[in-house]
């Protein structure tokens, strides 16, 4: 994992026990995170480590966002990027259907991003 802000501890997220609100808190802090099985993870990186099953059009968008304006967080379900945050452009959540588990991950991320804690409104804006 490539860090853009120096070393940070990795937050643990338990999809079966923790709710979207816990994921929203983790995302708001900007910390990298991983689920207990590492099937859902968020990494602070400028370039994706994998494109997984991301369709070509979305992969091209991710590549473009990686070079301009730049990526600071990519959220993966298994090896596939399901969301990313680009400086000045905000969050991208491709509308793509995958497996049942990845669909559950997408739903958690979508709800967490739609309901940020008060901290999130200031931390990602910086």
Which short descriptors sum up this protein?
alpha+beta, single chain, globular, 126 residues, disordered N terminus
Provide an overview of this structure.
The model is unreliable at 1-7 (pLDDT under 50). This protein has helices at 20-29, 56-67, 100-114, 118-123, and strands at residues 11-13, 33-35, 40-43, 71-77, 80-86, 90-92. The longest helix is centred in the last third of the chain and has 15 residues, at 100-114. Strands 1-2-3-4-5-6 form a six-stranded mixed β-sheet. 34% of the residues lie in helices and 21% in strands. It is globular. It has four helices and six strands. This is DUF8033 domain-containing protein.
Instruction: Give the helix/strand class.
Output: alpha+beta
Q: How many discrete structural domains? A: 1
Mean pLDDT: 86
The ordered H/E elements are: EHEEHEEEHH
Beta-strand content bin: 15-25%
Radius of gyration (Å): 13 Å
Give the spatial strand order of the biggest sheet: 1-2-3-4-5-6
Largest sheet: 6 strands, mixed
Provide the low-confidence segments as ranges. 1-7
Q: What general outline do the C-alpha atoms trace?
A: globular
How many helical stretches?
4
Number of strands: 6
């Amino acid at each position: 994992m490539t860090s853009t802000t120096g070393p940070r501890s990795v937050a643990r997220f338990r999809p079966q026990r923790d709710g979207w609100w816990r994921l929203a808190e983790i995302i708001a802090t900007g910390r990298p995170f991983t689920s207990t099985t590492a099937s859902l993870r968020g990494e602070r990186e400028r370039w994706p480590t994998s494109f997984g099953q991301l369709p070509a059009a979305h992969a091209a968008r991710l590549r473009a966002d990686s070079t301009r304006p730049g990526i600071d967080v990519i959220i993966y379900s298994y090896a596939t990027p399901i969301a990313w945050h680009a400086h000045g452009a905000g969050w991208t959540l491709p509308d793509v259907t995958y497996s049942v588990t990845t669909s559950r991950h997408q739903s958690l991320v979508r709800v967490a991003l739609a309901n940020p804690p008060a901290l999130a409104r200031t931390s990602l804006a910086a």
